[in-house]
Amino acid sequence: MTVASKKQNSKFSEAEAIELAKQGDAEAFRALYDLHRRRVYSLCLRMTTNTAEAEDLTQEAFLQLFRKIVTFRGESAFSTWLHRMAVNVVLMHLRKKGLQVVPLEETTETEEDAPKKDFGAQDPALAGSIDRIRLQNAIASLPAGYRTIFVLHDVEGYEHNEIAEIVGCSIGNSKSQLHKARMKLRELLKTSRAEKAIQP
Amino acid sequence: MTCTEFEKYLPDLIDGEARSENAAHLGECAACAELVSDLKAICSEARNLETCEPSPRVWANIQRTLEAEGLIRPVLQPGGVLAEPRRRSFGAWLLPLTALIVLGVGALVYSNRSAVSNSTTSNVGVLKPPVVVPRASQLDEFDDEQLVSQVAPSMRAAYADNLRNVNAFIQDAQEDLKLNPDDDDARHFLMEAYEQKESVYDLAMNRSAQ
Lengths: 200, 210
Hints:
The structure holds 2 protein chains of 2 kinds.
Chain A: H1 14-22, H2 26-48, H3 51-68, H4 78-96, H5 132-141, H6 144-155, H7 160-167, H8 171-198
Helix pairs in contact in A: 1-2, 2-3, 2-4, 2-6, 3-4, 5-8, 6-8, 7-8
Chain B: H1 3-14, H2 20-28, H3 30-47, H4 56-68, H5 91-118, H6 141-150, H7 153-179, H8 184-209
Helix pairs in contact in B: 1-3, 5-7, 5-8, 6-7, 7-8
């Protein structure tokens, strides 16, 4: 995870904003929100694939953060603290919806979910032909469990030991699910490219 | 090494852990080499996905909740004086108030013509002894009631409304000036409010005098 501690265009730095927010300064709260809103919202959106839910969860994550801001001592980066809070908010939401955040066993996935093992692929390589819109759509199409691990690791940059702690699985399971998510994405992207190629 | 055996090392390989036996297999197997290339491309693009912007309502809701929970405190100006935000935009008063006065004038002119054409000898309820118009800053509720009572019954509601609005304008301007005694805008708005009230009185007095 990269540490974010940047000076903003606003009148104070993140560190100053944190101290002022602890005293209840409205502008400081706004500054912290502006600094981190895109990343938090994007995380929520990628994990839920629903804009309304993502906005509600973004709101909840920031509110939880602001309510606890007086306890922030600076042992870790503020962005890390906020991000972890956002991830927990989203995962709790997904669990409440009854979605399997991480498949616990390999045998629970359906045949449809499982990526096809195709070592003899005839399609051209994906490298150089992945556009971000198709990738975003493909990520949104992943089963919830694969999507969670993929977003946390490959998009947000969490390590497997962190993911294991956050979602409550083993490091091995995290690695396994990530690999399957990537294989599934490969399959989805190749299918999407093939469909686009045959369109008039 | 077979392709199936190679696949077991794929997750670590994509994440940067190289093994010599993997490299050897990649050199021999085009399909696995392409697979590795594809998966690395996916990871690379994933890291570069753009972030999205939430709608403004998210911050609006956060701010409202923070205020409701008392986590946001008012901003203090130098000297410890609370600088509360102006309760109203004073410019917002001017347009509706001016419109009311214009409508009031128009109605006055119309009813004046009707009164002249319908009544030749009777002055009941219309003509009152002339009243000296006091300065607006000295006017109070009693004066306002007297004024409203002096206009024709058909116009009383409109004048009462006008007076209510202009009095609220004056009150806001007075409070703002109290909080910001050195603010020229606050002083200007208070003077405008008084002038508006004088206009209302002038209109009513002109009508009464006819």
